[in-house]
């Protein structure tokens, strides 16, 4: 199975709405409404609601399901969708990468994007107690623990 990673540059309305909140901005998620999408951000301890009538996310959700929670990094939205024919048709995807002035698409393997439950557990253990804790808690050898943490880090770096 494949996924499509979309890096979407927000519109001018978005930048005007969030002007002055650019530092310490955290993306909380979105909700579907009749008129479009509402994005939720946290800035300076307040939750900001950003309505978006022409959001590309609403159009794409009709063609394919999201694979992971959307992120907002470095002023760009990152969406991960399951690759479907309907999505390919809507975005006119050819093999490889496709570029536009507003977003970049990249086809990737789902295995390259999603952490397995074991990788998540190993990574949490590694973050709290190092490699020794991974070995003791999961009951695996040191090379296996290294491999689990290494693959988790690779997937996280790819995102």
Structural topology:
Elements: E1 2-8, H1 12-17, E2 25-32, E3 37-43, E4 46-52, H2 56-61, E5 71-73, E6 76-82, H3 85-91, E7 97-99, E8 103-109, H4 110-113, H5 117-138, H6 142-158
Antiparallel strand pairs: 1-6, 1-8, 2-3, 3-4, 5-6, 7-8
Report on the structure:
This protein has two domains: 2-113, no CATH class; 117-158. The chain starts with a strand and ends with a helix. The strands form two sheets. Strands 5-6-1-8-7 form a five-stranded antiparallel beta sheet. A three-stranded antiparallel beta sheet has the order 2-3-4, with no helix packed on it. It has 159 residues and is an alpha+beta fold. The chain has helices spanning 12-17, 56-61, 85-91, 110-113, 117-138, 142-158, and strands at 2-8, 25-32, 37-43, 46-52, 71-73, 76-82, 97-99, 103-109. The relative contact order is 0.16. The chain has six helices and eight strands, in the order E-H-E-E-E-H-E-E-H-E-E-H-H-H. Helix content is 39%, strand content 31%. The radius of gyration is 18 Å and the shape is globular. Helix 5 packs antiparallel against helix 6 (142-158). The model has no long low-confidence stretch (mean pLDDT 81).
């Amino acid at each position: 199975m494949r996924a499509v990673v979309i890096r979407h540059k927000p519109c001018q309305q978005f930048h005007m709405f969030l002007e002055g909140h650019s530092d310490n901005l955290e993306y909380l998620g979105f909700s579907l409404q009749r008129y479009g999408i509402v994005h939720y951000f946290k800035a300076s301890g307040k939750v900001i609601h950003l309505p978006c009538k022409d959001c590309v996310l609403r159009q794409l959700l009709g063609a394919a399901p999201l694979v992971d929670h959307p992120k907002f990094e470095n002023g760009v939205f990152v969406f991960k969708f399951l690759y479907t024919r309907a999505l390919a048709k809507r975005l006119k995807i050819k093999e490889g990468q496709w570029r536009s002035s507003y977003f970049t698409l990249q086809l990737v393997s789902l295995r390259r994007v999603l952490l397995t439950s074991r990788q998540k557990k190993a990574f949490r253990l590694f973050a709290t107690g190092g490699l020794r804790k991974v070995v003791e808690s999961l009951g695996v050898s040191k090379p296996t623990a290294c491999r689990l943490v290494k693959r988790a880090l690779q997937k996280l770096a790819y995102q």
